[in-house]
Each structure stands twice: as structure tokens, then as C-alpha cells.
Amino acid sequence: MSKLHRRTFLAAAAAAAAAPVLAGAQGTAPGVPARTRRIACEEGFSIPELIDAVDRYMEAGAEDEPGMRALIGNDKYPRFPRLLDPELRIADMERSGVDMQVIMVNSPGVQIFEAVEATALARLINDRARDWCQRWPDRFVALAAIAPQDPQAAAQELERAVTTLGMRGAVINSHTKGEYLDQQKFWPILEAAQALDMPIYIHPREPAPAALPLYAAQRLEGAMWGYAAETSLHALRMIAGGVFEQFPRLKIVLGHDGEAIPFYLDRIDNRYRSLHQGGLGPLTRSPATVFRENFWVTSSGANWSPAVRFSQEVLGVDRVLFAVDYPFEEEVSSVQQAAAIPMEQVAAEAFFHGNAERLFRIAPA
């Protein structure tokens, strides 16, 4: 059984075992109101057609995506029922006390395919996500899948998804064939996101091919460390590369308490200034200022009290959002862990729902 299969199997088993634990329960941490609304903001979603396409791609060799091979070996991509079945998902939400999910296509999304196939799959994914959101509007909002392989088409699909389908932003599963959003070829996507005033969620995937062997040698390419290393690199490339000089109102979301960037934020600023003789070089705002003003972080897969509270201290309570990383993290225990974080009522309301309502334009309950 591959690492990814084991991960999903164990998550499913844990969910089944823990399901009765939190039925109907509400948060009881100090300062958390008994009926705090919970919006989980990085929740995986897929469709059978995408998984079929991934299987065909892997069977053909996947020579330019060694990270996928490292993750799943020679097995097929798992058809995790909770990625595909909204009614199973809603039952889990009832048990865990999650009121609404922000759903997004899980890694690698459509980014492993050639541009034409990727663009067509993105449209299909978005149409299917729209169906979920229309049928259960009090349960789901969605972020659009886009195909950076064709930046102009991706920008057009983002506009369609937002203006026609009601999507609340886009998800990009970090690198696309080893390339990153600081490269100007991708800037039509960023221009569209800024014009629409919608966030881009940079979701993890395994490191780019050039870096992968250093991680895979010790099985570090996945969620244990490689995901955070890859995604934080992506964000810092965007900051250092001047993306936010060109797009000063661009909104970016990172999961996993900011992929460790908040912990290093002071050092990042200090060393950046050292590289530029105490100044800002080509930037007009320091890296830390950009991160505080253009980024939001979620607690996906990382509802550990010290990490969440530290992120709130560094970034402000208005920049940190609750998430589970469903179905790859067990939802009941994630909610229990988050509900136990000591917070004042104002911070708890912001964390569990207020920040998500503002960022993703979700109507208050």
C-alpha cells in the first residue's frame, strides 16, 4: 500500500471510529461561545473524471512528475469516497460540528496535464463544484480550479467561475511543472484575481522535480515536511520577486498556519535587509509587511494551540482562519483540538467564521 493510500485509509478509519464522539457537540474552550459558527477553509474536493485522468497519466509514465510517483508509487490514485460524495461529507460535518466548508480541488489538481486537457478538466471541476454549492448553499462555497499551463485561459476561467458560477477565489496547487507564480508568464492570473478582488489559495503539493530527490530520499516529500517547504518557497518567491509591487491588492491564502513563515518572519525581514545594505532593494514594502498585508493563513492540518496562537500574535487575529484539511485530516478530532484553543470571544469569532465570511464573501449566519 502506498504512502498516500495509507494516509487516506487511516484517516477514514479514524473518522469512522471517532464519529460518535462529537455528535452535536459545540466548542467549550475559554471565551468560545457555545454556538460559534464554524467555517472550515481548506477542504478537499474532487470528481471521478479527474481521478481517471490522473490514473491515465500515471499509467503513461508520468516522467515529468516524479513527485506523483514518489507519493503513490505504482498504485492508482485513491478514490477516497469523502472527496467525491457530498452526502457522506455532510454527515461528517453534522458529527463534527463544522457548519460550512470552503471546498477546493485537492493536489495536484489539473496541474500535471497538458494545457488543453487541464483547462477542460478545470471547467468540469468548477461546474461540478457549482452544483454542490447550489444544492447545499448553507454547506459549501468553492474555490475555482484553474490551469496555469495556459495563463490566459486560466484567467478567463477564473473570471467565469467567479462571475457566472459564484466561486470565491481560486486554488493553485503550488508549482506547475516546476514553475512558480513569480514568473511573469503567470501574471494574467494574478491580474484577474486582483481585478475580481478574489483570493488565490496556494495549496501544497510535493516539491518541484529539481528539489524532489533531497526530500524523497528520506520520505520527506509529503505532508510531514515537503509540502510546507515547497509552498513556503512559492510564497517567498512571490514576495522577493516583486509580485506585490505589481499587484499590491492581491490576496493570497496559505494553509498549515502559514507553512511556517510566521515563525521566521522577523528573520526573513532581517536577512532581506542585510542583502540590500539595510534597505528594501527593489521592494517598497518589507517582506514581513507584504506578508501581513497581502496574506491570510488557515489552520488546516495544524490546529495545534501554540501554532495557531502564535500565528494570531504575529499576523493579527483578523488574518488566521479555521480549517481542517478534510478528508485528509480527521474532522472530529480537528474540531475538538481547535475548540480547545484558549481565545477571547472576539478572536474566536474571527477565527472560526468572521475572517472567512469577510475573505470569501460568505453571508453571516
UniProtKB/TrEMBL annotation:
Q: Which UniProt keywords apply?
A: Hydrolase, Lyase, Signal
Molecular function GO labels = carboxy-lyase activity; hydrolase activity
The residues forming the signal peptide are 1-25
Spell out the GO cellular component terms annotated for this protein, sorted alphabetically and separated by semicolons: cytosol
Query: Which regions form coiled coils?
Result: none
**Amidohydrolase-related domain spans which residues?**
84-362
Picking any one GO biological process from the record gives: secondary metabolic process
Query: A Pfam family name for this chain?
Result: Amidohydro_2
**Protein origin, superkingdom:** Bacteria
Extract the InterPro entries matched here.
ACMSD, Amidohydro-rel, Metal_Hydrolase, TAT_signal
What PANTHER family does the annotation carry?
A: 2-AMINO-3-CARBOXYLMUCONATE-6-SEMIALDEHYDE DECARBOXYLASE, AMIDOHYDROLASE-RELATED DOMAIN-CONTAINING PROTEIN-RELATED
Which protein are we looking at?
Amidohydrolase family protein
